[in-house]
Structure formats: structure tokens, C-alpha cells
Design goal:
This protein is of the alpha+beta class. Helices cover 31% and strands 28% of the residues. The chain folds into three domains: 85 residues, Rossmann fold (3-Layer(aba) Sandwich); 61 residues, Dna Ligase, domain 1; 188 residues, D-amino Acid Aminotransferase, Chain A, domain 1 (2-Layer Sandwich), CATH 3.30.470. The strands form three sheets. Strands 9, 10, 11, 12, 13, 14, 15, 16 and 17 form a nine-stranded antiparallel beta sheet that branches. It has a four-stranded parallel beta sheet with strand order 3-2-1-4, with helices on both faces. α1 packs across α10, α2 packs parallel to α3 and α4 packs across α5. The chain is globular. The protein starts with 9 loop residues before the first strand and ends in a 7-residue tail after the last helix. The structure holds adenosine monophosphate. Adenosine monophosphate binds next to β9 and β14. The site of adenosine monophosphate has 14 residues, from β9 and β14.
């Protein structure tokens, strides 16, 4: 067993975005310093951390310099190359392990891993050539989704295939290959589970939550998910199976679909804090960020307990960011801003949380009303 990281030690976080920012804030509360690796000056995570290594994720000199400032290394950005991961792991303990990131970086490796540990997904096939795409469509059927296997997020690098005519333009546009074809899941809802696992094997998972997207970007998370108990339990079992099969040390989110017949299918795994876990900062004694830091630092894992029900709404792009004065003037909205200076379309600028007594999460209209000035945008 790894000894707990002593107070005032330095945790390295690869990536300078809001997930790193909120992880660094949780680390500071536990008495740790953070060193951020990011190419971005004045990054959201850099603003709240003890140190920043300004450099590219693929630059060996930057990776080495970063590692030498850290006692242990973790991630908020997963897409570091295999060579870069090996370089970091040769210098310092890295949690989660590079092997975990390699699974989550590649949709084909990810789907194969999930199915290999008995977790159901949409039907899928790797696609290298147009002939393979035609064969995959013949087997899986339409509608389907063609995706790049790496670096896709928030709906980028995807094309929906509805008719045979859609195949050629989608295949030409999406690069690099191989691609992955996935059968379209006719889902009743999208849910996720965020869970932490320690080097000791200790495990803690937050309640299953429900996610609503707009323009492929997470808009709302409702905690807990308004789904039958058996469905929530199936999602929990799936997350635990994935965390254990990965021998995870750190935090993991599993995004899932609930099919019309109630079957739970895994969509993606993310071995880091996740947007659908932001509500835990306000609704739980120990948030996803605290559990992430505790797992990485070798501290005991507390239960992932929820004292309140919660709705989390993302503030995306200039229009929602502009509502900030009203948001901070609205009693009951708990504001979080990420320190980004430029509010580009589709960019996550912050989020708000609204708490309800346990069991008091309102229905659709109540959720909308509870968001005040954010309700009708
Ligand atoms: P992803 O980048 O894989 O997380 O996909 C982004 C969003 O696209 C998901 O949250 C779903 O809303 C939708 N999506 C992705 N894959 C599928 C699928 N196989 N069937 C139905 N919807 C999907």
C-alpha cells in the first residue's frame, strides 16, 4: 500500500481547465499544493494553484520539468500520448495509471474493454475503409453514429448516419481513421456514475445522476436520477465493475444510456472528475474533487454521501455567462465561475447548483422554475 502523501506535498495535475481548477481547490483544502501542466497562460487551474509549468503536453522537456516539481501526478486532461505518459510514469507515481488512460483515450479500446468485462454497449465496429463502413452498416443498421476514436468530446468528431447517402460524406469528413461505427441507442435517458477507488481497493460511488444535453454539451445534471431503483442499481454495479477491472486509483465517470426497455448501456468512461459530478461540491460533504485528490494522495476515502438533492446547470458560451450579475443576485443559486476571460460559443464558463432537501427534487417544471434567470434561456 502506498503511504499517504504528507501535507504540503505537491500534486501535479496535467491540464489547466475547470476540472483541474476545482481539483486544485479541493487539494488546497486538504493542505496540498498543486502544480499544473498547461500550454495556456492564465488557465482556470493555474489561477488557483501554487505553480504552473507552461508547456505542451507532448513536449518532453515540459513533461520532465513538470514531473520534477511534483510528488504525485494526476490528470484533468486525458489525451497525453503514450510516450508522454511513459515519461511521466518513469519520474513520479501517476494515478490513474497510464494503462487506464490508454483505454479511455481510444473509443475502440474503450468499447472492447467494456464488453470484455461484461458491460453492455451499443453495437459497434471499427471502420478503417469505406468498404468496412458499408459492411458495418449492413450488420448494425441505420440510424447509426460514426465517430473518430480519439480526441472527440462534446459531440465533436461525430456524424449521424440516417440514410445510405449519409455514409460517403461522413466517411470523407471524419479523420483520422480508424473510425468507430455505433448503433444509435434509442435512449429514454442519459445517466452517469462518478466513483473513486483507492490503492487499497476501497471504493466510493456517488448516486446515479441524470444528464440532459443541449447542442451535444451537458446542460443539466439532476441528482439523483429520476429512474427506477433497479436501473440506478444496475448503473452502480456497472461503474464498480469498470473501476475494479481497470484497477483504478483515482476518480472515474461512466456515462450510460438507459434504453427504452430499461437496459443500461455504457457509452464512455472518463478517468477524471466529470461535469456530471459538479453538483457534489455543494450537495455532499466530500465532493468528487475531494475524492479524486484523496484517492491520488492515498488518504482514506469517505463515503460518497449526498445530503441534498441537486440540480446543476452549466453556463455555456457568452449568452449564459452574461447572466452572471443576475445569478449572483439570486438567493439559492450557488455560483461557480471558472476564470475564463473569453466566452466563446460552446465554452463552459461556469455552473450553478441549486439544492433541495433529500427526496425533494422537483419535476420538470419545478426544476426550470428553480433555476430563476437561467430557466428560459
Ligand atoms: P459522446 O461523445 O460519445 O459522449 O457522445 C455525445 C452525445 O451524443 C451523447 O451524450 C449522446 O447524447 C449522443 N450519442 C453518442 N453515442 C450515441 C449512441 N450510440 N446512440 C445514441 N446517442 C448517442
Amino acid at each position: 500500500m502506498t503511504a499517504a502523501l504528507p501535507a504540503n506535498a505537491t500534486i501535479g495535475i496535467v491540464g489547466g481547465g475547470q476540472l483541474g481548477r476545482m481539483s486544485a481547490m479541493a487539494a488546497a483544502r486538504l493542505g496540498y499544493r498543486c502544480q499544473i501542466l498547461t500550454p495556456e497562460p492564465n488557465s482556470p487551474a493555474g489561477q488557483v494553484s501554487a505553480g504552473v509549468t507552461l508547456g505542451e503536453y507532448e513536449d518532453p522537456a515540459a513533461l520532465r520539468d513538470f514531473a520534477l516539481h511534483c510528488d504525485v501526478i494526476t490528470f484533468e486532461f486525458e489525451n497525453v500520448s503514450a510516450e508522454g505518459l511513459d515519461l511521466l510514469a518513469a519520474l513520479r507515481p501517476v494515478h490513474p495509471a497510464p494503462a487506464v488512460l490508454r483505454v479511455s483515450q481510444d473509443r475502440i479500446a474503450e468499447k472492447a474493454f467494456l464488453n470484455g468485462c461484461g458491460v453492455g454497449t451499443a453495437a459497434w465496429a471499427p471502420v478503417e475503409s469505406f468498404a468496412e463502413l458499408e459492411a458495418a452498416v449492413a450488420r448494425i443498421g441505420l440510424p447509426a453514429i460514426l465517430k473518430t476514436t480519439r480526441l472527440g468530446y462534446d459531440g465533436r468528431g461525430q456524424a449521424r448516419l440516417r440514410r445510405p447517402d449519409d455514409l460517403a460524406p461522413a466517411f470523407e469528413r471524419l479523420l483520422p481513421r480508424p473510425l468507430i461505427l455505433e448503433g444509435m441507442v434509442d435512449f429514454a435517458s442519459e445517466i452517469s456514475v462518478v466513483a473513486a477507488r483507492a490503492a487499497t481497493g476501497a471504493y466510493a460511488a456517488f448516486d446515479t445522476v441524470e444528464n440532459h444535453h443541449r447542442d451535444h454539451i451537458l446542460d443539466l445534471t439532476l441528482a439523483p436520477a429520476r429512474i427506477p431503483q433497479a436501473t440506478a442499481a444496475a448503473a452502480q454495479a456497472m461503474a464498480q465493475r469498470v473501476a475494479e477491472a481497470l484497477d483504478l486509483v483515482g476518480l472515474l465517470a461512466v456515462e450510460m444510456f438507459v434504453a427504452a426497455d430499461g437496459t443500461v448501456l455504457a457509452n464512455e468512461i472518463a478517468p477524471r472528475p466529470h461535469n456530471s459530478g459538479h453538483w457534489t461540491i455543494d450537495a455532499c460533504p466530500a465532493s468528487q474533487f475531494e475524492l479524486h485528490i484523496r484517492a491520488v494522495a492515498g488518504l482514506p476515502l469517505p463515503a460518497a454521501r449526498r445530503h441534498s438533492d441537486a440540480v446543476m446547470k452549466n453556463l455555456v458560451g457568452p449568452r449564459e455567462a452574461a447572466l452572471w450579475p443576475q445569478i449572483v443576485a439570486t438567493p439559492g443559486l450557488i455560483p461557480h465561475l471558472y476564470g475564463k476571460t473569453e466566452a466563446r460559443a460552446g465554452r463552459k464558463m461556469g455552473h450553478v447548483t441549486r439544492l433541495f432537501p433529500r427526496g425533494g427534487l422537483p419535476g420538470e417544471f419545478g426544476v426550470t422554475a428553480a433555476l430563476g434567470c437561467l430557466a428560459n434561456d
